């Protein structure tokens, strides 16, 4: 809840600037299931009306993902967010898209926001883009836009150019 206290403090400072903070999305362990209600209430109180939801990494980055999406208590926590009017911001990797789609169907009252949609956790010999496309089933009417795994701010221009070239050749 400390991050919400900090963000609310920063929001108060920025309120009369050109860049006010209008919402706070914090962290809570949704695997607590219904027991996470106390944490949500604490975030709401600390957020001074700005608390909007929880962000969660339901797997791992550069390690084997935890199977949080299939844990009943996690799903209860996600449903609880919706009952409270809060959203879930999730960083879902490509191999978790099917499970995330199931979660969306099971928790229709919870707004689900997918950060870095289906972030490919690939190595040159793997093809998760096919897995992403198989789950999302893009069409001309509903296209799929895959973003680069890094932005120009995070990579030297030659590396960024190599990434663009790779994406053009392989997607």
- Report, as a whole number of angstroms, the end-to-end distance: 41 Å
Helix content: 25-40%
DSSP strand (E) fraction? 15-25%
Shape category: globular
**H-E string:** HEHEHEHEHH
Report the average pLDDT across residues.
Answer: 79
Count of DSSP E strands?
4
Give Rg in angstroms.
18 Å
Give the uncertain stretches in residue-range form.
122-126
Continuous helix count: 6
| Structural category | alpha/beta
Strand order of the largest sheet: 1-2-3-4
Biggest beta sheet attributes: 4 strands, parallel
What can you see in these coordinates?
With 171 residues, this protein is of the alpha/beta class. It is 40% helix and 15% strand. The chain contains six helices and four strands; from the N terminus they run H-E-H-E-H-E-H-E-H-H. A four-stranded parallel sheet has the order 1-2-3-4. Strand 1 (24-27), helix 2 and strand 2 form a beta-alpha-beta unit. The longest helix has 14 residues, at 157-170.
């Amino acid at each position: 809840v400390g991050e919400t206290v900090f963000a609310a403090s920063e929001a108060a400072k920025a309120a009369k600037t050109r860049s006010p903070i209008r919402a706070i999305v914090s962290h809570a362990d949704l695997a607590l299931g219904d027991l996470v209600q106390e944490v949500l209430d604490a975030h709401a109180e600390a957020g001074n009306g700005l608390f909007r939801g929880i962000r969660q990494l339901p797997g791992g980055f550069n390690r084997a993902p935890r199977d949080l999406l299939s844990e009943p208590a996690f799903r209860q926590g996600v449903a609880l967010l919706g009952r409270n009017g809060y959203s879930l911001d999730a960083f879902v990797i490509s191999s978790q898209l099917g499970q995330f789609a199931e979660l969306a169907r099971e928790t229709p009252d919870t707004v689900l926001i997918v950060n870095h949609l289906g972030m490919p956790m690939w190595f040159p010999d793997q093809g998760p883009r096919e897995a992403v496309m198989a789950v999302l089933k893009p069409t001309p009417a509903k296209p799929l836009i895959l973003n680069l795994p890094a932005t120009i701010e995070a990579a030297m221009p030659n590396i960024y150019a190599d990434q663009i070239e790779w994406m053009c050749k392989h997607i």
